[in-house]
Write a structure and sequence with these properties.
Elements lengths: L4 E11 L2 H7 L1 H21 L3 E6 L2 E6 L2 H17 L10 E13 L2 E3 L1 H11 L6 E3 L1 H7 L7 E9 L8 E8 L30 H12 L5 E5 L6 H10 L9 E5 L9 H9 L9 H9 L4 E6 L8 H10 L3 E7 L8 E5 L12 H4 L3 H13 L10 H10 L4 H8 L7 H13 L16 H15 L3 H10 L8 H7 L2 H13 L4 E5 L2 E5 L2 H13 L3 H21 L6 H10 L1 H14 L2 H18 L2 H12 L8 H16 L3 H17 L3 H17 L3 H18 L2 H17 L3 H17 L3 H17 L3 H18 L2 H17 L3 H17 L6 H14 L3 H17 L6 H17 L2 H12 L3 H14 L3
Helix pairs in contact: 1-2, 2-3, 3-5, 6-7, 8-9, 9-10, 12-14, 13-15, 14-16, 15-16, 17-19, 17-20, 18-19, 21-22, 21-23, 21-24, 23-24, 24-25, 24-26, 25-26, 26-27, 26-28, 27-28, 28-29, 28-30, 29-30, 30-31, 30-32, 31-32, 32-33, 32-34, 32-38, 33-34, 34-35, 34-36, 35-36, 35-40, 36-37, 36-38, 36-40, ...
Amino acid sequence: MTPPLGVFAFLFTDIEGSTRRWESHPDEMRAALARHDALVRAAVARSGGRVFKAIGDAFCAAYPEPRRALEGALAIQRALAAENWGAVGPLRVRAAIHAGAAEERDDDFFGPALNRVARLLSAGHGGQTLLSRAAADAAADALPTGASLRDLGERRLKDLARPERIFMLVAADLPSDFPPLRTLDARPNNLPAQATTLVGRETELEALRALLRRDGVRLATLTGPGGTGKTRLALQAVAELVDEYAHGVWFVALAPIADPALVLPAVAAALGVKEEPGLSAAESVKRFLRERRLLLVLDNFEQILDAGPSVAELLAAAPGLKLLVTSRSLLRVYGEHDFPVPPLTLPCGGTSSRACRQSEAVRLFVERARAVKPDFSVTDDNAEAVAALCAQLDGLPLAIELAAAQIRLFTPQAMLAELCVACGGAGKLDLLSGGARDLPARQRTLRGAIAWSYDLLDDKERAAFRRLAVFSGGWDRGGAAVVFDQARSLPSLQSLLDKSLLRVCEEGGEPRFEMLETLREFALERLDEHGEGDDARARHSAYFLSLAETCSSRLEGPDQQRWSERLAREFDNFRAALSRALARRDADAALRFAANLGPLWNQRGRYSEGRAQLDAALALGDGAPSEARARAVFALGQMHNGLGDLPQARERLEQALELFRSLGDRRGAVDALTLLSWVLMYQGDVERAEKATEELLDESRRLGEPRRRALALERAAYVAQERGRAERGLPLLEEALALMRQAQDKAGVALILNVLGEHVRARRDFARAAELYGESLALSRSLESPFWISAAAMNLGVCSIRLGRPAAALPLMTESLTLTHAIGNKRNVPPALIGLAALAALDGEPETAAVLLGAAEKFLREQNTVLVYADRGEQEETARAVRAALDGAAYEAALAAGRALTLDAAVAKALELARRLEF
């Protein structure tokens, strides 16, 4: 008989801090807990619920509808608040309510809804009652008298599934002020959301969390063949540890990377670390990690094992770092702890439906089968076949998911018969080249399961599956339509999704597809076996070359943000296609790719990688002038500029300018002159910057494009200010702003507003400057542009200080320095340090202020750069105030202490100062 599957409301509760109370008042706590249990059970019964599980001080209750669960939670909180708890102190209970489908059997409930409410409970605090959106929507029209719901916004729970909109129950007689929710959003992280919940693995999760919490464990490696669920286990374990790492938990997907030299740049990209001038990506990452406490997940390491020593170097450089690696093989480095990931548990103690449902493998099979056949369940009729099926698949999660996806086509009994033939028939184990019989038994079983799923496809689906393997890092419907027929792309994608051979998520408002690496390896081999590899890869390369050119050509104007995000989203595909072009020594394709990827490398701070790829592309061919070569040289100048190598940047930009002019490319010449003027200004070569700007003004006037003309005017205004002719700069900037608005370029408007504010600030009109910076900041926030948010926030903070509003300046300066450091913009660190030094001086900490001034001075010197005119005035004014508050020896000693700091140490000191300042 099939157990009933219906929609229920669930109320979970537990006591906050019960372990501590047991340790300090064991006898009193025993009596208090008995009273707590009686109150909870009575409140649940009165509100129409049923307690179906009680573990320690935690209760799980089921209700027919969310309104009654809410009444129960309110009754529990009021009853506990009214009780006198004596020596143990008030018992504060957190509660959570969620509504969803669940299976009721053996006086218990099972299903994803139970996982969801448990995660919701873990986000709360004692005395707080949280509701999911499903529960809140159902109960909102019938709230108890005096109760209301407060919307806490959309948050990511630690089950890594979809974000949840969370509501809090509010009543006048109960507390309503609580700390921030304990969700993934509470700590910095980039953990990817998961389409499904983790089933089982309770034992492994507990053991892995305990291993990672051990002081002597710095590196743990989850090992096992493909398909064992290493990545999913790792993600869930670290999600539950995120509160324990002050600087967050970070996930680095290494599956698309084949070159060990790209591992640390990938780590840098995941952490948002930009290369420091004169340092490699490895050294930049080490500096960033040195004084941070964080957990790093390196996923799919097996194809880049030669990068193991680099990982060991990271651990040596960063004492607060812990690493969790997933790999089919150990890294074999010192201090590594192996954590083999076993298969899911199989049924034991008989093959009745009740015994089967206790096994993790069967639970996973049932949950995934219900995704395609909602009424599926394990019954006494099919239990033996389901158990045998999971045993045949050795409890491997991927194999089980693939099998479960076929439940609409086969009964479990028929599926078992088909799978036994696929895995045991002549030649079935040798489906992949390389001799599958030499692989471990579990790996052979997985290959058999993949092959069986593949053999069940029709010819069109198989062709689509093979060809989709050429994508790296996912794809959208447009890409799929190019590598195989347009007419059959959408039906084939849907069919492969239904069979668990693809996964889908939403990015940029559009569905994006991906294939697990284990499946992709299989598909790639089948692609080449069928002789389709060359054609599919050629189509892939042609599509992404066209896309790169389209994206880079649309990075200006009203849609710039959308196209920038599209360019970044396809980075792994661009990288794969560029690598093929370099390997084939296809100079034209390599140069076109490199030239159009320049904006992406520049925007994302991947300067070292961009420089290496551009150098490789420029080394091909005969060196004859071409548009692609000129743009690649210009992009190389951008990379050197980003790395702080201003002499090399200047040389490459001058070379690009010459190439653009020889080709008659006025737009390219204007771009090269604009950046060249910027580099010359930061080198302090004002005379040469002025000459370049004069040329820029002439070229932009002839070109007639509003955006480029606006940037030329902005450069001219900077030169005028540096030459002491500020009165000429303001009208130039006002004209530039009008032109940029005409071009509908929001990023450009934000830039001009910020620069206009600097000119006004230099004239000490701080009120007007604050208005301009405020408008720039609001626009930058709407664009989610961290560079311009940090710049505008810093400048607005300076104005707030000068207007006598240090309390308003403090959060702005803190945000600016935090963002600036996070995105790797080293040039804006010195002015941010100077701004916080001004606040330190105002709050009576002149020595700390002098330390920050010394650090700022050192970093400017190391970067071989100068402050712009408005910031020079702030530096001089702050230095005067600090010198007046300290004697000469103390001032010089503090400056020297600042000059001895590393960049990370200086930023940490400034942020620590910001936390203790009071205004």
